[in-house]
Amino acid sequence: MRGGAALALDGQAPVEADAEAPFYLPYGNEVAVFEQCHARRLAVLLKGPTGCGKTRFVEYMAWRLGRPLVTIACHDDLTANDLIGRFLIRHDSTVWQDGPLTRAVREGALCYLDEVVEARQDTVVVLHPLADHRRLLPIDKTGETVAAAPGFQLVVSYNPGYQRMLKELKPSTRQRFVALEFDFPELEREAAIIVRESGIDRATAHGLALFGKRLRALDQQGLAEVPSTRLLIAAAQLVAGGIAIAIACQVAIIAPLSDDAALVGAMQDLVAASFP
Ligand SMILES: Nc1ncnc2c1ncn2[C@@H]1O[C@H](COP(=O)(O)OP(=O)(O)OP(=O)(O)O)[C@@H](O)[C@H]1O
Ligand SMILES: [Mg+2]
After folding, report:
1. Ligand nearest 25 Cα, by number?
2. Where is the CbbQ/NirQ/NorQ C-terminal domain (predicted)?
3. If we measure between CA atoms, which residue out of 40, 28, 36, 123 comes closest to residue 75?
4. What value does the mean pLDDT take over residues 87-109?
5. ∠ CA 71-74-78 to the nearest 5 degrees?
6. Whose CA is closest to 274, among 218, 219, 195, 210?
7. Is 54 in the pocket of ligand 1 (CB under 6 A)?
8. Which ligand approaches the C-alpha of residue 58 most closely?
9. Which residues are CB-contacts of 18 (< 8 A; sequence separation ≥ 6)?
10. Between helices 229-240 and 202-217, what is the axis angle to 10°?
11. Which of 224, 131, 216, 115 is nearest to 165 (CA)?
């Protein structure tokens, strides 16, 4: 572990508070498990709702392991060539340019593919020989087969229940990954994250975290989307900038979540009850 002050919570492993370290508050043994996966060259799948800390975790692990991080946002137009690379025409010659996946493989980077289920199957299959013991990337267009540098690790994420399901990943893809499950932090942990990310006082952060928990319980009453830690932090940042809490909750939490008048009214009632 690198130097720097540490922040401990409820007996959890301390978190680096080094100036250059991304702030990440663990919820369990995910740091140790990920480190073992890295050491054993196992690819990792992160499952969890939007805004619960998956990207921050990968940023933290890349820092902790001293590896560069290459992030690729997946979408249904993403092709294998976008990942691997392509020939570019320069004057009267063509030159090969590595795509982000090839760069990560050569550099020994952590390669993070966000929302992997959004990518087409024919794009995802290029990951297969990289995500098992072979650790190879064949580049059909040049005839080269690149062996992954030692620090290379494939990390993918997906939001369960969001648009597409994990089952849309082929079993032959899924079964190449160790899966870490993320969820929203429990109350005290979420309040600590809000304090750290926004600079607001502990009592207000606690109130926002509690408000978030209550809103998440409204999913039974038809709230299709529940607030992420990211939204709670956005409200807290507005409060830190001098915006009244009721307005901050309205613009940063309620309005992004729903257009339904009844649900918006119920959420506003909860704000009034939470911040009298
Ligand atoms: N455990 C945590 N430690 C520190 N910060 C956290 C943690 N969990 C959430 N956060 C905060 O919440 C914000 C949103 O988290 P992040 O961007 O990592 O979400 P995500 O799971 O990657 O979401 P998405 O699926 O939408 O990409 C972060 O920028 C950070 O401020
Ligand atoms: Mg993310």
Report:
1. 1
2. 190-273
3. 123
4. 95
5. 115
6. 210
7. yes
8. 1
9. 2, 3, 4, 5
10. 140
11. 115
